[in-house]
Known about the structure:
- The structure is a homotetramer.
- In chain A, 62% of the residues lie in helices and 0% in strands.
- The first copy, chain A, is mostly helical.
- In chain A, helix 1 crosses helix 2, helix 3 packs across helix 5 and helix 4 (84-101) packs antiparallel against helix 6.
- Chain A has 2 domains: 1-52, Orthogonal Bundle (Arc Repressor Mutant, subunit A); 55-197, Tetracycline Repressor, domain 2, CATH 1.10.357.10.
- The first copy, chain A, is elongated.
- At the A-B interface, helix 7 and helix 8 of A face helix 7 and helix 8 of B.
- Chain B binds a DNA duplex through residues 1-5, 7-9, 12, 33-35, 43-51, 54-55.
- Chains A, B, C, D: Residues 195-222 are annotated as: Disordered.
- Chains A, B, C, D: Keywords: DNA-binding, Transcription, Transcription regulation.
Amino acid sequence: MARTIGSHGPKTMEAIRKAGLRLIFEHGYAAMSLRQLAAEVGIQSGSLYNHISTKQELLFELIRDHINELLRQLDRALQGQERPADKLRAFTAFHVSYHMTRKREVFIANSELRSLEPKNYEEIVALRGAYERRLAEILSQGVAEGEFEVVDVQVATFAILALLTGLTTWYRPGGRLTKEAIVAAHEKLVLSSVAPGTTPNQAQAKRPLSRSAATSAKPERR
Amino acid sequence: MARTIGSHGPKTMEAIRKAGLRLIFEHGYAAMSLRQLAAEVGIQSGSLYNHISTKQELLFELIRDHINELLRQLDRALQGQERPADKLRAFTAFHVSYHMTRKREVFIANSELRSLEPKNYEEIVALRGAYERRLAEILSQGVAEGEFEVVDVQVATFAILALLTGLTTWYRPGGRLTKEAIVAAHEKLVLSSVAPGTTPNQAQAKRPLSRSAATSAKPERR
Amino acid sequence: MARTIGSHGPKTMEAIRKAGLRLIFEHGYAAMSLRQLAAEVGIQSGSLYNHISTKQELLFELIRDHINELLRQLDRALQGQERPADKLRAFTAFHVSYHMTRKREVFIANSELRSLEPKNYEEIVALRGAYERRLAEILSQGVAEGEFEVVDVQVATFAILALLTGLTTWYRPGGRLTKEAIVAAHEKLVLSSVAPGTTPNQAQAKRPLSRSAATSAKPERR
Amino acid sequence: MARTIGSHGPKTMEAIRKAGLRLIFEHGYAAMSLRQLAAEVGIQSGSLYNHISTKQELLFELIRDHINELLRQLDRALQGQERPADKLRAFTAFHVSYHMTRKREVFIANSELRSLEPKNYEEIVALRGAYERRLAEILSQGVAEGEFEVVDVQVATFAILALLTGLTTWYRPGGRLTKEAIVAAHEKLVLSSVAPGTTPNQAQAKRPLSRSAATSAKPERR
DNA sequence: GATGAATGAGCTTTCATTCAT
DNA sequence: GATGAATGAAAGCTCATTCAT
């Protein structure tokens, strides 16, 4: 990939983002050196600075742009859905599909938050919170309407997101299953997981879950 | 100067492991410097080498010891369970409980596999495969006995593991929920997720899933 | 900060080689630190790596380039000489002269072979063998034509080379003797040493010296 | 060799000297680590300090003891010889024989002088000077009596010593030649080298060689 | 006399970043 | 916009040496 010697202009920036995405995905932000990145792009490491301001900024922009796009597309995917189950199915289908085509962006946005400097971290976490809230609200609505049953909405939100995002660790194009099959498999799991039924045993929260606590607790960086 | 009075060998090793666990959990393996680690332990960085052979070896042993312990305890937790639902509940309860007390080990064992050198990586992935296989077999049995319904056992295995392991990214002792509540919340989600019901739409695998492909595919490092 | 004005690439490389030569000559390869070398050149130690790839590579190239040059010039010096005595005189004069102007290179090429990694060592020893073979052949020819008398050609070859190369341990420009006097002194010693005469006492080799054994024995790294 | 676990007392000291000799011979003083040495002896590196005071002191004593022994034995070997040729033959035979049985000591005493700290260096060089002077005096006497002819006594002294000492770089027991043959080969070379004959071309010293200049010049460390 | 664990300095090498050209 | 050469800090690791046990 890349390495088109002499590439310049916006093409170079694009190559940097692409290569950066791949290298961070494979080795992690801290383990990726700008020399590696530059070599991948086919330029000297000093030349990177004609396009990026710092390594940190590159990471930040990759993540921020990704989450913004994710949010934009999620809202489009949810449009027109009214009933909680439909919303949840749409959410799941969108999430899985998106993760299959952008697995590197998604993976990095989840795994490299700790590599962000505080200011950047805050900004990204706020955006991520918006995404999580979409799901939390779907679940809350479903519970309120009696369509869903969960022990705890907050836990269910995190669990379902983890379930769906786990995809990025094993999915690869051209595998055994079609994309549709993978989407279907996840829809089944997610929709069933919150379906009403015999709850194993009744557990109590130590404290009631206030609306804000549900999403803004942030006890530590995660 | 020689050794500070009162600091002993095994105690130092234990301090190194503990601090290493914390630092890798917080910053990642690549971003943790041995100087940091040594400072945390209260010795010079060169002194670490009286206890570890390399940074890589430290990571490897932390992960390997963790997975071995995990496997050992899992098998004990599953003892005596016969029906798939009971097994799955036991698996879930054990997994969640264990992850709450050893969240750093668990997190690292999942996130730092890519930091392992090939030989070490192979060894850990083999161990991890054993763990995954326990769950895959529970699901298979449940499906065969008509107790569970999943679109694809392999996908369900990965998804459920991801769901459960996601816990490590947000759990912290002293939070809003009791441990029991957290376990219960996950039991509900997991048991429901594979419960028979209306599968959204029928999807087909491109290829049938052979037994071995299910667990040994390893298309790329994950 | 960036580069100091006026310091250029090739000039820096040349300064590194020159300073490296001197430091290795004075302290030995293992005892020379790259910090020392960099300080000598007037740059930071990390900056060395814009010019060399490793410390080992620097040593290797210094030695290899030297031996290649030595061989090239030797062959020129021997051109036109027919009789063994003339060849031997030419060899001696060339060797001594060259060693007086390049004593550091010569010394290092002899004393630091053990510091070379196996692959580099093999390459250099092969080149050195070519040089030794020139002298061995001159002696053989002289013995065959009855002009020289030696107890053993192989021993004589090594001994004469050692005699000549010893120069590097004491020669310094501006000493008591002119270069010409030093050359003459060595010519006398070398030519006399193989002159026919009364051999002290007749000694026997345990085994006859095969042609190949003479030059390829290499019992151990030397 | 060595590694007799639990060896103690004078036996350990002897093992240290033996192993040190070998390691310095093979890798050089700077490149030999005390950990290596200790491992060879079968103890921990800290334990070395029950026997040596510093690494430098070990080197110094190895060299000093060697040269003292060399001088002692040389004087015994020269006893009873009157005529310069007989003395030179005896010197050569002794030197070669001794170098064959103690090649490591000899090699180190020549190659590691630069690794000695100034004070130690001075002491060793003084001893070495005594050894060189024996040969210089033999040559001077021979020249004075008309038995030898050399262009310059000083140069001849250094050259003959280099010739003889070169042995340590290639000799190994069990090689093609008997010890006697090797001695004979060197006797022929050395005695012939100073034999009167047609001096190639008459060269002049820039300055006459004063008695003291011949041996105490020491223009630089060599 | 040996050990094991420590020190503090030092090693070679890599890093992100800068900037004259 | 790219290069090549620089910086200064820091990396993982090794070193000779010390000393309580």
